[in-house]
Amino acid sequence: TQLLEQSPQFLSIQEGENLTVYCNSSSVFSSLQWYRQEPGEGPVLLVTVVTGGEVKKLKRLTFQFGDARKDSSLHITAAQPGDTGLYLCAGVRDTGFQKLVFGTGTRLLVSP
Amino acid sequence: DTAVSQTPKYLVTQMGNDKSIKCEQNLGHDTMYWYKQDSKKFLKIMFSYNNKELIINETVPNRFSPKSPDKAHLNLHINSLELGDSAVYFCASSLTGGKTNEKLFFGSGTQLSVL
Predict the structure, then answer these.
(1) What is the Cα–Cα distance from B82 to A34, expressed in whole angstroms?
(2) Residue pLDDT, tens place only, A21-44
(3) Among A49, A97, A98, B1, fewest CB within 10 Å belongs to which?
(4) Which chain A residues are within 8 Å of B104, Cβ to Cβ?
(5) Number of domains chain B contains
(6) Structural domain of residue A99, as residue ranges?
(7) Residue A31 and residue A92: Cα distance in Å, rounded?
(8) 3-state SS string over chain A?
(9) CB-nearest partner of A104 from B42, B92, B96
């Protein structure tokens, strides 16, 4: 049983479309992070959300932490080919950052 | 001047062999990690070290032995390699490992293929 389930698993869209990726759990997290991973590279942190209901924006990316701190979403507006990659959510449990738990991942392909 | 560097990038070997992966970080971080990413891209923690001390060992077979000679280095030695060990192994580091809003810095991964 995965602690953090992401949906969809795969997403193939055209440039200019909007999309939302979901990260769901039955567990409560102290904070939640989103990473993006490109082929042949390690994941790179995009954002950390800490407070229930928090919304953070990073250019065309909008991240939201659920009120109960059990889920999160990533919304991309007007997707571009450069957004292509593997998106991973990761939850920090109250046992500490060292116990960071990664989600199942969403592979996004944005075609020109 | 890569922040977290690991070698080799690719490792192809036969079943039963012993191999090592090296990792170094130049960020001055206290905590280093080894993660395993399987073929479905699921990333799971294997080990965590804080200032050379083992903090987390996530039920990894004892064929895997991490070693941290100093806080800037965390190497991974694998004995008697099995087919199921094939995966991408990532080294990572974070500042202290103790705060909830820390950030993981990953190396670029070592793709291990056991034949």
Answers:
(1) 32
(2) 999 999 999 899 999 999 999 999
(3) B1
(4) 33, 35, 43, 45, 90, 100
(5) 1
(6) 5-111
(7) 5
(8) CCCCEEECCEEEEECCCCEEEEEECCCCCCEEEEEEECCCCCCEEEEEECCCCCEEEECCEEEEECCCCCEEEEEECCCCHHHCEEEEEEEEECCEEEEEEECCCEEEEEEC
(9) B42
Which CATH number is A28's domain given? Answer: 2.60.40.10
Q: Which tens digits make up the pLDDT trace of B67-103?
A: 999 999 999 999 999 999 999 999 999 998 777 678 8
Q: What is the pLDDT at residue A53?
A: 95
Q: What is the CA radius of gyration of chain A?
A: 13
Number of domains in chain A: 1
| Whether A100 contacts chain B with CB within 8 A | yes
| Domain that includes residue B26, residue range | 4-114
Tokens of B58: 């996530």
Give the CATH number, domain containing residue B11. Answer: 2.60.40.10
**For the segment A53-95, what is each residue's pLDDT rounded down to a tens digit?**
999 999 999 999 999 999 999 999 999 999 999 999 999 887 6
Q: What is the nearest CA distance from B15 to chain A, expressed in angstroms? A: 24
